[in-house]
Sequence to fold (277 residues):
Amino acid sequence: MEHSSSSKMERHQEQADLVVDGFKGLLSKYDPYSDSLNDRRRTRVHREKAHISRPEFEKVLFNRLHSNLVPLLGQQIANLSRSLNPTHFQNYLVLTFQLILEVQSKLHQTLNQIESAIETICAHRTTIRSRRVNDQNLQHFKLFRLDGLCRDYTEGLMPEIVDFFKESRRLINLLKIPKKVTESRKDLKSARQCIIDRTSSIMVRINTHIEWYNGPEFDLVQLGWPKETHRIDDSLGELLSLINQAKYNSSVTQAARLLVPLFNYPDCSSIEYRNEG
Fold:
């Protein structure tokens, strides 16, 4: 009886190790700041079908990203998040590990396709810059949209997903470590909450990322405005602090006071534009 129980525990441990290795593989391959990803970008060769011209090929990729691949990524992250529930491991341990391994495999495929498509589309920026093309009529391939899309993927979406993988790996490792019941429950509850929070952040990021594909240009311009208005407030505070210092002569002080309304104007106008838009 003890031998049977021990063998069962070993099998569970092996499956847990496979799941942890799966997250390690995802992290090493898709961390936007990893050496392996940078090496892959330098050596990747994009193979295009002969009967499809490059602009048409990029348009196909562009549409596939926002209509299929990125939403699919969101679904797979949501499925993985649901599987990473400690109660599932208590009741359906083997099945849950199998489900996680399957989703990990699907995530590899989806992320690889997204990465390749993003690189192809973002390479279009170099063409626009080198040829000094007027992108007025390029619609979805305007430089500012491509810059925002590529930056949002690398600096916004992928870091969130990488952190999600790290939190997921942490939860599985906690399941492997024998602890007191009270400690285990507390740690698992904390890890589970981190996964829930990270999943919510990813869904917001995915919606924002899709906006860079098909959102109105005026809405895209406003995405960064909240950060800019905070900077304006900081700059205005520094200016007012300087004005109030007695060591500055009256002419400088008067000139500085004239600038205060100019600092306030962009903040007010952005609110007005948002309300009208």
